[in-house]
Amino acid sequence: MSIEVVNITKSYKNFTALENVNLHIPEGELVALLGPSGSGKTTLLRLIAGLEQAQQGSILFNGEDNTNRDVRERKVGFVFQHYALFRHMNIFDNIAFGLTVRSRKTRPSKEEIREKVHSLLRLVQLEGLAHRYPSQLSGGQRQRVALARALAVEPKFLLLDEPFGALDTKVRQELRRWLRHLHGKLGLTILFVTHDQEEAMELADRVVVMNEGRVEQVGSPEEIYLKPANPFVYSFLGRVNLFRGRIQNGRIKLGEAEFTAEQGVSEGPAIGYMRPHDAEVSLHPPQSAAATAVQAHIERITLLGPLVRLELRRLDTKEVFEAEMGRQRFLELLVEEGDVVYVTLNNLSIYVESELQSVPTPALTPVHVTV
Amino acid sequence: MKHVTEPAYVRWSLIAVAFLFLGLFLILPLIAVFTEAFKQGAGVFLAAIAEPETLSAVKLTLLVAAISVPLNVTFGIAAAWAIAKFSFRGKNVLLTLIDLPFAVSPVIAGLIFVLLFGSQGVAAPWLAALDLKIIFAVPGIVLATTFVTFPFVARELIPVMEAQGKDEEEAAVSLGASGWKTFWRVTLPNVKWGILYGVILCNARAMGEFGAVSVVSGHIRGMTNTLPLHVEILYNEYQFAAAFAVATLLAVLALVTLVLKSLIEWKTERKSKAEEDYYFDASGEKAG
Amino acid sequence: MRKSFLRRGFLPGFGMTMGYTIIYLSLLVLIPLSVLFLKATTMSWEQFVGTILDPRVIASIRVSILTSFFAACVNAVFGVLVAWVLTRYDFFGKRIIDGIVDLPFALPTAVGGIALTSIYAENGWIGQYLAEWGVKVAYTPIGIWVALTFIGLPFVVRTVQPVLQDWDLQMEEAAATLGATRFATFTRVILPHLLPAIITGFALAFARALGEYGSVVFISGNMPLKTEIVPLLIMTKLEQFDYAGATAIATVMLVASFVMLLLINYLQWRINKFDAAR
């Protein structure tokens, strides 16, 4: 079932959690709501579930307005960050809860409930634990019980709040793979909240990046990584280098490095973003005539398994930045700490700082770069 | 969040029922004490208060509290230090034993001291030889009162000290502070509200104890009569206005106790709430 | 010595405080209480049983248990209600109400006793209306029940309140997303969680009511076989210098209190364990 969020605004006593949020989630997709804490992602999830009321805007499921519908009637599966399993009930009763609380008329028979619960236990690979209590299970097992409990009522879609937040790394990896698999099997629309970009990139078909109550970008993991809509998305996803400079007479100047800007670009201060793996390190000045390389001093070399990270300081602007390369390339280079190298700045994204708004994050517009 | 609360009409009727119940059982009796006291005018009220027997009862009540409360505070601090800062076998047994006086009927609390020190008691020959009188005298009243108020300070202080942990004390000792210095400078400031809380409750019970004191006192007017016992005597002599007049003194004591208690709760709650707010700010998403 | 030193860490004062605790506890509580049992053993078995099985004693035990039980029941129901209202709702005067709940702890029992008597006597504020309906409260078992309800009122409120304050609202939200009505959420999710605290509060109120003396003597009328409670009977025996009789009844009562105390401590331990296992 598809979810449509239209113009939602939600504010609390002293701050605005969501501001004019619009979002469309197509049926059957696995979507991540990604953002730092305080970005409003959990609030959005709770609004969709009906656990919160918005001041303004509407929420539609398959085109049907659900804005004022009670949470009990929305039929959404919600998995809480700390699972919220009923502590005094065993696993069986926890999973069966949504069925046993139905009114006599709509409640399935005892036999049907038993069958349903056991098939769900098989699905979440917890057969044989039906009579355990939540306190007797591991974190990962509890998480799966919470999922089974949400699935028992045959929800229209699943909402997961930081589903793996409370688990250790190894279990998290396993559960991610398992959730991916489950999604493929059930074909259910799943929306989950996370602050972990790796988790969002690895799991989701589509990532919604949020910040300060706004949606910054929606796209596939590749799109948002390779074509970040703005500096926030750029810096939130992965490591990034930042260079300050100016745009003058159609030229972008970042220290000694110069690039040609598109026609009609406004002049003023500019910021260049670059991923560390886009920095090309060499011992000699590059052959091409374009002045896109700068000289830098190697301050520190860090070995990260297959990768090598160089911490560099530009000789012209004294800015510190990082370059990453494969181990093989590093061995070919034969450099050590203290050496001075040439670094070509590839795939730069340049943003112009507009003068009207500069606080707190300056509004920046991307400029197409031609060397 | 409308889903986690009830409709307004349910809410307001629950509040109304709670008010009715508390009004009937708590507030009405409290009002009754004051209205009955002034029923025959302020003159009778003042006369009852100014009567020498009332004044001597006030004095005795204050004396008893002044002895038994410090005794139990000392005990409470010692017990809390041993129990909260160290681990040893039988801790739960010790905690249960400290609770014992709460489980004993006040009448039995009085009875045991009569059996011990009374005219036919175990220690009677020894007391006679020394010409000491405990039962039907002030020492008996003090003993019985100390017994019934025994757990108050310890019970209040043990969880507070346990929650504080012992990191700060260990740090102080490792920095070269002596045991006493550590206690005065580190532990005491951390638990002062807990102690005060215990003292207030202990004092209220010490001044108000009726059953246990009634058994051991002998009801000698002007000699072994505490305020609650004096109330009973006046009441049984059908001097209702006077009985209630003396009772107002105890009711005011109760009200002061409740106010102080709430103030301490408010103060310590505010402190923990400030810590909570900090936590909420740190993880903004939690809000709402 | 060295071993215990290591195990207990290096804070000083364990020996001194522990020693003081044990000595004070023994002198003030343990030795006096054991005198009661000592005295009881000087009686012959027939004498002891004869005292206990006396119709007047049996009747007083019956009155004590029944009135205490019903008082604790009422307090269990209304205690949960008051705790709920105080933790969940906002209304004018909430702080005052929260403070006044402890009044029975702070008000001397004798004062509570005479105040309740004046209200529920046949010419009292409430007593006169009840009398019109033919209900007598003061000087009947109902009066004892009123006094014991007063005295036990704070217990359930104060055991349930912290549990409700720590309660994870997400449980209720989870129940709501699963389609449970508010009523079903309360009976099937919240109430089972509160149950250990309610039982603890009930047991505390019941135990306190069994031993209560001060507030009851005024309102009960103290009629043998009808409105005489056990502590009052012990008092009566003492006034008649029947120490053996008083001791026998007190011993039975004390043993009952110990059992209650162990039960309460066991329940508290269960609650803590339950919470730790979250």
From TrEMBL, chain A:
Gene Ontology molecular functions: ABC-type sulfate transporter activity; ATP binding; ATP hydrolysis activity
Record-given protein name: Sulfate ABC transporter ATP-binding protein
ABC transporter domain mapped to chain residues: 3-237
InterPro entries with a match to the protein in the record: AAA+_ATPase (IPR003593), ABC_SmlMolc_Importer (IPR050093), ABC_transporter-like_ATP-bd (IPR003439), ABC_transporter-like_CS (IPR017871), CysA_C (IPR041193), Mo/tungstate-bd_C_term_dom (IPR008995), P-loop_NTPase (IPR027417), Sulph_transpt1 (IPR005666)
Any one GO cellular component localisation term in the record: ATP-binding cassette (ABC) transporter complex
PROSITE patterns: ABC_TRANSPORTER_1, ABC_TRANSPORTER_2
Natural source organism: Brevibacillus parabrevis
NCBIfam families tied to this protein: 3a0106s01
TrEMBL record, chain B:
Domain ABC transmembrane type-1: residue ranges: 58-261
Entry keywords, A to Z: Cell inner membrane, Cell membrane, Membrane, Sulfate transport, Transmembrane, Transmembrane helix, Transport
A single GO molecular function term of this UniProt record: ABC-type sulfate transporter activity
PROSITE patterns hit by this protein: ABC_TM1
Pfam families: BPD_transp_1 (PF00528)
Membrane topology of this protein: Multi-pass membrane protein
Transmembrane segments: 12-34, 60-81, 93-114, 134-154, 195-220, 240-264
Keyword Transport carried by entry: yes
InterPro entries from the UniProt entry: CysW_permease (IPR011866), MetI-like (IPR000515), MetI-like_sf (IPR035906), Sulph_transpt2 (IPR005667)
Gene Ontology CC, one term: plasma membrane
Entry keyword annotation includes Transport: yes
Subcellular location(s) of the protein: Cell inner membrane
Chief location of this protein within or outside the cell: membrane
Physiological role: Part of the ABC transporter complex CysAWTP (TC 3.A.1.6.1) involved in sulfate/thiosulfate import. Probably responsible for the translocation of the substrate across the membrane.
PANTHER family registered for this protein in UniProt: SULFATE TRANSPORT SYSTEM PERMEASE PROTEIN, SULFATE TRANSPORT SYSTEM PERMEASE PROTEIN CYSW
Subunit description: The complex is composed of two ATP-binding proteins (CysA), two transmembrane proteins (CysT and CysW) and a solute-binding protein (CysP).
Name of the protein in question: Sulfate transport system permease protein CysW
Gene: cysW
Automatic annotation (TrEMBL), chain C:
GO cellular component, one term: plasma membrane
Function: Part of the ABC transporter complex CysAWTP (TC 3.A.1.6.1) involved in sulfate/thiosulfate import. Probably responsible for the translocation of the substrate across the membrane. Part of the ABC transporter complex (TC 3.A.1.6.1) involved in sulfate/thiosulfate import.
InterPro entries, per database record: CysT_permease (IPR011865), MetI-like (IPR000515), MetI-like_sf (IPR035906), Sulph_transpt2 (IPR005667)
A Pfam cross-reference name: BPD_transp_1
Localization, UniProt: Membrane
Annotated source species: Brevibacillus parabrevis
ABC transmembrane type-1 domain segment(s): 61-264
Similarity annotation: Belongs to the binding-protein-dependent transport system permease family. CysTW subfamily.
Molecular functions per Gene Ontology: ABC-type sulfate transporter activity
Gene3D superfamilies per UniProt: MetI-like
Domain of life of the organism encoding this protein: Bacteria
Subunit architecture: The complex is composed of two ATP-binding proteins (CysA), two transmembrane proteins (CysT and CysW) and a solute-binding protein (CysP).
Transmembrane segments: 21-41, 61-87, 99-121, 133-157, 189-210, 243-264
Keyword Transmembrane helix part of the UniProt annotation: yes
Lineage: Bacteria, Bacillati, Bacillota, Bacilli, Bacillales
Keywords tagged on the record: Membrane, Sulfate transport, Transmembrane, Transmembrane helix, Transport
UniProt-recorded name of the protein: Sulfate transport system permease protein CysT
Protein topology in the membrane: Multi-pass membrane protein
